[in-house]
UniProtKB/TrEMBL annotation:
GO terms for biological process: glycogen biosynthetic process. Belongs to the bacterial/plant glucose-1-phosphate adenylyltransferase family. This is Glucose-1-phosphate adenylyltransferase subunit GlgD. SUPFAM superfamilies: Nucleotide-diphospho-sugar transferases (SSF53448), Trimeric LpxA-like enzymes (SSF51161). Keywords: Glycogen biosynthesis, Nucleotidyltransferase, Transferase. Residues 18-227 form the Nucleotidyl transferase domain. CDD domains: ADP_Glucose_PP, LbH_G1P_AT_C. Pfam families: Hexapep_GlmU, NTP_transferase. Coiled coil: none annotated. Signal peptide: none annotated. Residues 288-355 form the Glucose-1-phosphate adenylyltransferase/Bifunctional protein GlmU-like C-terminal hexapeptide domain. NCBIfam families: glgD.
Amino acid sequence: MNMIGLIFSNIHDAKMGELTKQRTLASVPFGGRYRLVDFVLSNMVNSDITTIGVITKQNYQSLMDHLGSCEEWDLNRKDGGLFILPPFGEGQTSVYRGKLEALYGAEKFLARAKGEYVLLSDCNVICNIDYRLALKSHIESGADVTVICNREDPAVDGETKDLVLQADDDGKVTEVLMHTGYTKDNLIGMGMYILKKDLLVERISKAAAQGMYDFERDFLQLEFNQGILSMNTYEHKFSVLRNVDVPSYFANNLKLMDDTVRQDIFAENSPVYTKVRDEAPTFYMEGCQVDNCLIADGCRIEGSMANTLLFRDVSVAKGAQIKNCIIMQGSDIGADCYLENAIIDKDVTITAGKTLVGAPNSPIIIQKGGTV
């Protein structure tokens, strides 16, 4: 495919609280056995994009451990492959503040990579999409930039989104709004953009010279309003899970219990790849109760659970009650515990008899490796 992929691994770290204290957003666990980066990376590979750069900022050791040689994504190849792009700065400059500054550090990668077009993508938006169709739409439109977007019914009228677009019947953008309320008639940017490599490189150099760093504000919105930039939209009409903060991350994991959402995200003809770990099947002890849960391999369950997601190698002792929770890999839930609306990070021990109760919009988080 005549397109390069670039993934931003850290852009939304600040809003994810304890979940990104020891890791980059791209390596935050999701869905029982995956990391957030797996979804966009799999979409790219399934769309025949074979040269991909991952732009990092900080705390990316766990991301490197997860990606390894990239053989699971068939990216351990001589021609193309996956490249980790560490943070880049000159003189006394700090680590990048936005996507334009991050892209400045990827200029050499872009110069070497073979491809006329570039797909830029955040890693916090989960969907199953064929980028080949988006590229086709971009080329046919003749626009400078195509924004991949979707429509949503706001939970509250005027709910705020980072990038809100209005477009005509042909998909041509007529208005670009930032950090504003939207209605079900608006299109919402998914943090994914297609444009020509030459145009991107030119704008990166311009931004560096003028001290600009925000891709959406200083490039898309500014140049569109000045009449310099033409924009097209490609509407994705299947499930989209935006992980913009802890409450949305918590809700999106639990949305995987919904058959429609799960089938949209894990489409049969477009699989999601991840690092392979061999585990024994989950062992359900006599007397345990499990209702509407997603459970990975290697778990041992003696207690009761409802509407809960378990990652690999989790142990739930007898008498424990768990409702609306996310329990990550290697955690141990002691006897007679009560957990509700909680996110238990990796390798956590909850000792016997403890009670942890959060709220759906403010779940309790227990840090990686902690003991309660």
